[in-house]
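Reviewer 2 asked us to include a model.

Predict the structure of this chain.
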Amino acid sequence: MSGEAEKCAACVYWKMARPNEGSCQRHAPTPAYVSDSVAHWPTTHGGQGCGEFLVQGSAVDLAVCAECRYWRSPKGGLDPTDRGDKPLQWWGRAGLCTRHAPAPQSEPGPRAFWRATHATDLCAESIRRAAQVS
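Predicted model (structure tokens):
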């Protein structure tokens, strides 16, 4: 496929928010070093593109956070000290993305916190949870 056609708007990892603007959900969020961090995927324009482009309709099994083996959510969601830019209702269906382990830092003693995502968010690093057998 030519580079001209490999644009965000035609990529399976891109989630359109409004015409010609959306977010790249190729990567899962990394841990933060402050508590109650919310994952925000980077905004891109539909005409941009990158080397990880995969055309929409490709055979990939993207799972929403609620179906992902890396997502941890207590019953009733999360109860942060500060809700940040999200309403209480959002936090009720939020959990923590534990896809990535914390990376080493240059200073001793930092505490890692996994970022909050909503049950309906998704990324290309998800792995669907195995079906529970009763």
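Residues 77 and 92 are 4 Å apart (CA to CA). The mean pLDDT is 90. We have added this to the supplementary material.
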